[in-house]
Amino acid sequence: MISKDTLKSYVEEWLQESDYFLVDIMMEGDDRIAIEIDHADGVWIEDCAELSRFLQEKLGEELDDFELEVGSAGLGQPFKVEQQYRNHVGDQVEVIDAEGRKLTGTLKQVDGRRFTLTTQEKQVPEGKKRPVKVDVDREFSMDEVKSTKYLLSFK
């Protein structure tokens, strides 16, 4: 039986030769393994195939009982690892906070497991009657939010 730790060590061995990073390894049921990798500039299908072949060489017959899928974490999927946050600094993201509120803004910075989201809020300036939009920075812990994902824009 193939363990998740064994898979992770082989994937990390392959990753040492590239700028890719591991997002997740999912062992689904008794016969399916899904490995998600990512890269700052996107994932190439040829590299997924190369990792798949590498794992087949390392694991040999042990892998015969499994359906192996190697792919990208996906643009519209929630972030799972810190490097995904780092790759999207300056981009528009959607955060669902611990209370379930949905916030949209610019991912301003990442510091360890914390990140800053700049949102726009309407506020009434002192001495004025009409509200204006102002930038507000909100700090979050990656471990406390329900999800964060990149917002695709076609503008």
What does this entry look like structurally?
By secondary structure, this protein is of the alpha+beta class. Helix content is 21%, strand content 39%. It contains three helices and eight strands. The strands form two sheets. The protein has a five-stranded antiparallel β-sheet with strand order 7-6-5-4-8. It has a three-stranded mixed β-sheet with strand order 1-2-3. Strand 2, helix 2 and strand 3 form a beta-alpha-beta unit.
Helix-strand blueprint:
Elements lengths: L3 H12 L5 E8 L3 E7 L6 H15 L7 E6 L9 H6 L4 E5 L5 E10 L2 E10 L8 E10 L5 E4 L5
Parallel strand pairs: 2-3
Antiparallel strand pairs: 1-2, 4-5, 4-8, 5-6, 6-7
Uncertain ranges: none
Backbone CA Rg:
20 Å
Given helix and strand content, the structural type is alpha+beta
Shape: elongated
User: Into which percent range does the helicity of residues fall?
Assistant: 10-25%
Q: SSE order, as H and E?
A: HEEHEHEEEEE
What count of helical segments does DSSP give? 3
What is the makeup of the main sheet? Answer: 5 strands, antiparallel
Arithmetic mean of pLDDT: 92
Strand order of the largest sheet: 7-6-5-4-8
Number of strands: 8
**How far apart, in Å, are the first and last alpha carbons?**
49 Å
Sheet-strand content, in percent, reads 35-45%
Structure characteristics:
alpha+beta, elongated, 3 helices, 3-stranded mixed beta sheet, 5-stranded antiparallel beta sheet, 155 residues, 39% strand
Write a short abstract of this structure.
This protein is α+β, with helices and mostly antiparallel strands and 155 residues long.
